[in-house]
Amino acid sequence: MCTVLCSMIRMLKSYERYCAYDHCRLPMPWFIWNRRTDPASALRRRVMELDWGAPLATAGAGEKCFAAVLHAARAGREIVLCWRRKSGECRRGFGVSRIRQLVTLAYVAFRYNFPPSLYYRARLFRVPRERWLAAFSHTEVMTGLLILERRTEHLDVWSKQGWSRFCARHGLRTVPTVAGVVGGQFVVKDAAALEAGDDLFIKPDIGWASKGTILLEWRAKEGGWQASGEREGFVAKGALAEFVSAAAGAADVLVQPRLRTHASLADLATRALINVRVLTIRATDGTVSVFSAALRIPGHEEHCSDVATGFFVPVDGESGVMGYAEGLDMSGGELAVHPVTKARIYGRVIAQWPQMRAQALAAHALLPEVPAVGWDLVPTEAGVLILEANVTWSTNLVQVRGLALLGESAWPAAMLAYLADERPKADSGQKGSSA
Prior knowledge:
Layout: H1 2-18, H2 39-49, H3 61-94, H4 98-111, H5 116-121, H6 138-151, H7 160-170, E1 179-182, E2 185-188, H8 191-195, E3 200-204, E4 214-219, E5 224-229, E6 233-236, H9 240-248, E7 253-257, E8 275-282, E9 288-297, E10 311-314, H10 353-365, E11 372-380, E12 383-390, H11 395-398, H12 411-418
Antiparallel strand pairs: 1-2, 1-7, 3-4, 3-7, 4-5, 5-6, 8-9, 8-11, 9-10, 11-12
Helix pairs in contact: 2-12, 3-4
């Protein structure tokens, strides 16, 4: 029995080396980008070479045949599953027939090696086919970005504490920290803010997508906070330190004031703070520019990462003008107004956009080692603040509907230059993302 199980495990590992759940891990001859010389195509081939768990791009004909069979079986399954989940929404929202979707999904998988989900996330059914090579999947981007993250850990800006220190050194505006648990000890940094009886947020020092956050809403009558999120319950004023320490566990956490969306955009928010993701890119000549910007309108949750019920709005990088909003549920199509508040979205200008753009560019100028940074900026009554800098940013968000595709920017050439000296290591124990 053990022998059979070991054999099955070895087969499964072999399977994953050649074909991930939604893409082939070898550059097949029929992939459109396989022999092209443009930066986007060259970066795709380079990413495959650096995918630590996969065979090298120089794999032989036998290995490629094996990978092709596996890819056909697995991609076919993913196509059907994705089509069953999304085709109805796409037909209702954008009028694309289900048969056309199914045929195109197969073409996307076997000619471009894209995961079926990218067809829907990047709305490729609304993009001319000659631009499809400029689309990048989350897996392709993350393989390179994870290498970048490991090589830039010394910068100490990818944690919330590190980012606060960086902002303090360079005069950048970010969210203040009033207390926290650092190294197992509860530390008060602004006693007056805690005594004021305002709403607070508890956040992990290292985290993503608002995972692990706790909202503390002040209840003056009861003399404490009502907690919601990762932990719930009532927190008396004198018991805050104990509550935060328990929430922290073995990790570091920060306590920060709850921010409010600026009045000029408040009619687009419900409970949560509106967030603008701005992607800046440093070209090979050193020039830094804003490539992509998207407004995240939250849904029912207290944080902007509520993607299930929230909306994404493309923002023009020069003028700050908003496009149509869209959600993950495509059946709603394009939204010119907020479906709940009825506030106008399309054509609206973010009043704070000049400050947002300037702050993102100025901050990236202080990080000359990094080719691209995803900035989270918030327009508040206290001014524009940079929540954080992200070296591993969401591909789906920067390719939000209405924006240029990632391959149409300086990013592929910049990443190629950055990864030029990175060589795959046979026994490194590292593995690129396949998710």
